[in-house]
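Lab notebook: predicted structure, single chain.

Context: the supervisor wants predicted structures on file for every construct in the current expression panel, including those that have not yet been purified. This is the next one on the list. No modifications to the sequence; it matches the entry in the shared construct table.
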Amino acid sequence: MTFKKSFPVYIVLLISAVFFLHSIEKDTFRSARITKDELSRHVYYLASDELEGRRAGTPEAKKAVEYIANEFITYGLFPHPETVEVTSWEDYLQPFEFAAGVEHGEENLVTLRIPDESINLSHGEQFQTLPFSSSGSVSGEIVFAGFGISSRENEYDDYRHISLEGKIALIFHGSPDIDDPHGVLNRFATPRYKTIAAREAGAEALIIVTPPDVGSDALMRSRLDRNPATSGLPVINITPEIADKILEQSGYTAIDLYRKILESREPNSFILNDIQADIQTDLHTITATCYNVVGFLPGNHPDKKNEVIIIGAHYDHLGWGGDGSMAPDVHAIHHGADDNASGTAGLLELAQKFASNKDQLDRSMLFIAFGAEELGLIGSSYYVENPYFPNEHSTAMINLDMIGRMQNDELTIFGVGTSPIWESMLESFPQYDEFSIRTNPDGLGPSDHASFYRKNIPVLFFHTGLHGDYHRPSDTAEKINYEGMERIVKYVYDVALELNTYREPIAFTRVESTAPRGTARGIRVYVGTMPDIVGDSGGMGVIEVRSDSPAEKAGIKGGDIIINFGGKSIENVYDYTYALGEYNPGDIVEVVILRNGEEISLEVELGARP
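Prediction complete. Output recorded below exactly as produced.
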């Protein structure tokens, strides 16, 4: 690959360079050195109230994008290896679209048909269509089904003695263990799980009642979760007042039944004779645009300049909270100072430092600030499918995610097993002994390096650990350990520079991993599949299968789509997680996959989760 740079590019970058060199003298926050002051400046802006948590697809995230791109301009980075002209900061953007949410259409309608009366409900006041509902129209008899939980292992089944075929289920939000934070039924309490259970029981639609003991007739707070996949059923939420209307003929009120089940911890389900509903749901997916911000520095070695080292960090966070937050009921700015303004600040300082020493570079460098990482590594997944260099020319990827809360000099480096050179290279610098370093060989994990590892690219992931402010509004800039950040970023620079001038090719090694990641709370079994958490493929897509896992032994492969697990229909990752919860290690389960349009039935002997 050749690097084309036109005269206008040189002019723009020359002006930037002049400004940059001048600013070193005039501005203590502009320096070719890696400094805690500059790191702090970046973090305080990115984690400020003005940027409102940088949720992907929002105007505030776009402000972060503009800030990063303008920094790249100031440092003298190019937007792209094939750049012909720089016109603005937008030249540094790699746009991509994603499903950012849903919106209600105009045809969300519910009519209750009670003897001698029909009641048309008001959307947004008496009922609401939940964001994972399918769109469609259903008419049928209503069946009260308690909390809508079906758990074989816990011998609790609200659907045991009733038939839901062709009917509409009416259930309470929550679980009988609502007052026990360690209750075994709480993991079945989410509306998605309840929807899966109702669908498996044969229901045509689901009505969820706001908990009637909270002293309010308000509807539940409705949030889109990370996976835009629909549930396969129309699902609505109604107020306790409307539930009382439905239950009136039975002699019960909503609060009576609610308290009765809580006290007895026994199902109390029954058919509501002559009570029917007509439900029509209408939802539309909102598509938003997000951006990766890419800065490029060309290498100088005639044989190595077409190889590239990638340094990345995601800039997005959780906005005002909601799904993904560790405080899901708190509507407040989730500042994301450590996650991941810290990594983004480190990326900027590295870009600045390498730009000041660009004549030393043998291999080329790409600095990428990824978007939509919090929604499922969307930005990095998009990049590896649309790379600026062919993936086989990507020498290595270094990822910075949450490097701002180092304590006791502790630093974790993931991915050290993905190349045979990593361990000796990391140990060759004095910082290795100055830090208390823990290493992990695995190239997978919940951050952007995993996208590159899946393309057979060696990776390193620098991380200072989780903490009590993780995914909470309290992850703020003043809590960052800036001195620790400076030391980490300087270490990463030394490693990356050594890698840039390394004489031999950088070999890739696939890690033999036995420890599963990302399994849901309460699930005891291990399959070894990495799910596609953002896809909507009519099943659960498998991104990758771990070596020597139950899935690999059964013949499941990356790219397969799981459509049935143990007789349960799988529409998305939530169905899959729900199905796993019913099994124990050692169980043999029939799994139906879709591969190249063909259905294949396999038997999986489930392993034990460590």
